[in-house]
Design brief:
The complex is a heterodimer of chains A (371) and B (336).
Chain A (H helix, E strand, L loop, with lengths): L9 E5 L6 H9 L5 E4 L3 H8 L4 H5 L2 E5 L6 E3 L11 E4 L2 E2 L4 E2 L4 H4 L5 E4 L2 H14 L5 E4 L10 H4 L1 H9 L5 E7 L5 H5 L6 E7 L2 H7 E2 L4 H14 L2 E9 L5 H15 L5 E8 L1 E2 L1 H10 L10 E3 L5 E3 L1 H17 L7 E3 L4 H7 L6 H9 L1 H4 L4
Parallel strand pairs in A: 1-2, 1-3, 3-8, 5-9, 9-10, 10-11, 11-13, 13-14, 14-18
Antiparallel strand pairs in A: 4-5, 6-8, 7-12, 15-17, 16-17
Chain B lengths: L1 E5 L20 H10 L6 E5 L2 E6 L1 H9 L5 E6 L4 H15 L4 H13 L4 H11 L6 H11 L3 H9 L4 H7 L4 H11 L4 H18 L3 H5 L2 H7 L6 H16 L1 H17 L5 E5 L8 E5 L4 H16 L1 H4 L3 H4 L20
Parallel strand pairs in B: 2-4
Antiparallel strand pairs in B: 1-4, 2-3, 5-6
Classes of the chains: A alpha/beta (371), B alpha+beta (336).
Chain lengths: 371, 336
């Protein structure tokens, strides 16, 4: 797989999805790649499931299908830790990148890179959903069950999504990526409520554990271009992973980031230390026998997930927050993904009074004239 | 299939090509044979001028012990090894559950006799309650290649798949070193030993064999006054400390603080699991009002003690409790 643009080995189009405009666009954008129209993907899935590496095998194929259920869902978050009231749009499922720690390896039963093409249903569902939430500011994004931009050269969904959301003034829409697939974004007029966000990590973790993803320097450079174009940008240090010289590793990235991007153009940064359901561990061991990231001091948290022993998490967060605050990012809104109240209190210095309070804090792009 | 009566000498038992069961007790079967005789005929096939046993090892070995002869058998008139094996497989499938090791032998025989791998995974594995994945197939093939003393422990301990899978990650020499630790341990402790050893080895890049032959482990193993269970337990705890150095040092500090406070035996103070939450719990038992009041007084007295307030440092994650850093665990210096 090219580091910049993913193309599948073959595209399977479900017969009932063939006539959608997005299907036509995909078939135009994939060029000479073989295409097969199928009635039912189940047999294909059965075949893939007997492969040595089911998840890796699934990444070779693109399935074009329709979303039969709801596109919009609340971000599942995790019980007994503070959530951030985020909503997700499940437009693409799965990701061509191959990060060691990826939760999708455990979470999704369908290993194929899957694109839902019934966008008309999406707009209809979104209209209803946004109307039902019209009295509040809403944060919503697509990067939960797939990378928001990894397939954008094939689907061009960023154009449709930004065009839809730019008119929705009480909604902050976020595209979250590890790629540098920003060609379509740069063609778009920026809007105050659109945030293009990157997942960042130390260069060593990016190099060793984020197979297929561009380097951290390339990601920051892409963020600079998008920021220069006039969009707000966001950054997610998630998962933060302990490794030798992690302080230096994360320090370098944060330094480079804050030297490259004007901090006033950063809508938010989130932090989340590596955590995973116990069953993901076996998948990681199987697929990445050389990785060491799962052999640190993990304990079973209040939600049943494995997470670093609390003093280790605190050490990570305190250091990383001090880097951000001391190197020019003192005003950037920071939040945790799935952390407990006392971690908030001991590191960021305040605890959100419920989800709404956190939502208001993170909605600052709408309140401040940053454009 | 043809019915035939054979003398026991006519069956060449050294040929185990179709055998899938090794560890069983014959006691009850012998009793049954004595009372009602052999009701179900073993299956044999004719190969290289001999009759060889295809199915019914337990029955035939019990008959040998009695001895019971002549032996009524069915002769399978089939030259193809796979087809012959499948007759035995389906005969057994209908009548009993297979053990972990029997499943391993079945899959290894199917492969050996030329069955298509995809068919083994998709067709046969679900029949014997194994998830149809190539990874499970490979694990079971690895189990079939275990040394016989390891197989014996798996059988005796009724070891689950997850522990056998861990065992498969060690070399035959490492497995041999592990046997004295596994033999006296129950299933959970066995799994803990295997998991922690594997993970220390991976994390610190030290072969498991080197860890098991380290001075501190050898000292425990050769300490004569300890029983084999005590040795296994000590080593299990040692491995736990190496695997979770920061958490272990927190637990040890907490326990040593409690010792200093000198709590009455019936009052138990505990942190939240893994110190994840900010609170502690106090537990005491009482039989009557007087006892209840005495406990409350003791707790009140405790609250005034300077030492007691030190337990709150475990709440604040103070920096004076240092976390262990990356790189080789200092405790492993002598073997690293």
């Amino acid at each position: 797989m090219s580091k910049s643009e993913y193309f599948p080995e073959k595209v399977y189009v479900e017969k009932r999805s063939f006539d959608f405009p997005l299907t036509k666009r995909i078939l135009k954008n994939i060029g000479q790649i073989p295409v097969e129209v199928i009635n039912d993907p189940r047999e294909l899935l059965e075949n893939i499931k007997t492969s040595r590496d089911v998840i890796g095998e699934g990444k070779k194929y693109l399935l074009v299908t329709c979303q039969r259920g709801e596109f919009v869902k609340p971000c599942p978050c995790t019980p007994r830790y503070i959530g951030c009231n985020y909503f997700i749009i499940n437009l693409d499922l799965n990701c061509p990148l191959d990060c060691t720690y990826c939760i999708l390896q455990y979470y999704l039963t369908n290993p194929l890179i899957t694109v839902h093409v019934n966008l008309e249903d999406l707009w209809r569902q979104l209209d209803v959903f946004l109307y039902s939430k019209r009295h509040r500011i809403l944060r919503i994004g697509t990067g939960e069950l797939g990378d928001s931009l990894a397939l954008d050269h094939i689907t061009e969904n960023s154009i449709s999504l930004i065009s839809y959301f730019r008119e929705k003034k009480d909604v902050i829409f976020e595209l979250k990526t590890k790629t540098v697939n920003i060609k379509n974004i740069l063609k778009m007029e920026p809007a105050q409520n659109i945030v293009i966000a990157w997942s960042l990590n130390s260069s060593r973790i990016a190099q060793e554990e984020e197979k297929g993803a561009p380097s951290v320097a390339e990601r920051i450079d892409a963020a600079r271009k998008v920021s220069d174009r006039g969009f707000l940008v966001g950054f997610h240090f998630d998962p933060i992973i302990r490794h030798s010289y992690w302080e230096e590793g994360y320090g370098e990235v944060i330094k480079r980031l804050l030297e490259t991007i004007d901090p006033s153009r950063i809508a938010w940064m989130s932090l989340g230390s590596f955590r995973f359901p116990p069953l993901l561990k076996a998948v990681i061991e199987e697929r990445y026998p050389k990785t060491k990231i799962i052999y640190d001091e993990f304990i079973k948290g209040k939600d049943g997930k494995l997470r670093y022993f609390k003093p280790l998490r605190l050490e990570l967060y305190r250091k990383i927050i001090s880097f951000i605050r001391n190197w020019g990012g003192e005003k950037i809104p920071l939040y945790f993904c799935m952390e407990s109240e006392d971690i908030w209190a001991k590191t960021i210095g305040w605890v959100p009074r419920g989800k709404d309070n956190l939502e208001a804090y993170l909605s600052s792009p709408l309140g401040q004239s940053k454009i | 299939m043809k019915k035939k009566n054979l003398s026991l000498e006519e069956i060449f038992l050294e040929d185990e090509r179709f055998r899938i069961s090794y560890y069983f007790s014959l006691e009850k079967l012998i009793l049954s044979l004595k009372r009602v005789g052999l009701l179900s005929r073993p299956l044999v096939a004719f190969r290289d001028k001999h009759f060889i046993l295809v199915s019914g090892w337990k029955r035939v070995l019990a008959c040998l012990q009695l001895p019971l002869y002549p032996l009524p058998v069915f002769v399978i008139e089939e030259d193809d090894e796979l087809k012959t094996f499948l007759i035995a497989f389906y005969e057994n499938l209908a009548t009993r559950e297979f053990s972990l090791l029997e499943k391993a032998e079945i899959l290894s025989r199917l492969k050996k006799f030329g069955e298509d791998e995809k068919k083994i995974v998709r067709h046969y594995m679900p029949l014997i309650n194994i998830p149809p994945t190539l990874s499970h197939f490979e694990s079971f093939l690895a189990f079939s290649k275990f040394e016989s003393e390891v197989k014996k422990i798996i059988h005796e301990k009724n070891m689950p798949f997850s522990s056998a899978k861990l065992l498969a990650e060690f070399t035959p020499q490492e497995r041999r070193l592990l046997l004295p630790l596994l033999l006296p341990s129950g299933q959970n402790k066995m799994k803990e030993i295997l998991e922690d050893l594997k993970e220390i080895s991976k994390k610190d890049d030290i072969p498991a064999g080197k860890i098991l032959s380290s001075r501190e482990i050898m000292e425990i193993m050769t300490f004569e006054r300890l029983s084999s269970l005590q040795k296994a337990d000590k080593i299990r705890l040692l491995l736990k400390r190496k695997r979770f150095p920061t958490l272990s040092s927190w637990k040890e500090s907490f326990d040593s603080l409690l010792k200093k406070i000198n709590l009455p035996k019936n009052i138990i103070v505990k942190p939240s699991p893994f110190f994840e939450e900010e609170n502690f719990s106090v537990n005491f038992s009482f039989g009557d009002k007087k006892e209840f009041k005495t406990n409350l007084l003791k707790l009140q007295e405790l609250a005034t003690k300077e030492e007691f307030s030190r337990i709150f440092k475990f709440r604040h994650c103070r920096n004076d409790i240092k976390s262990h850093n990356f790189g080789k665990n200092p405790e492993l210096k002598d073997i690293g």
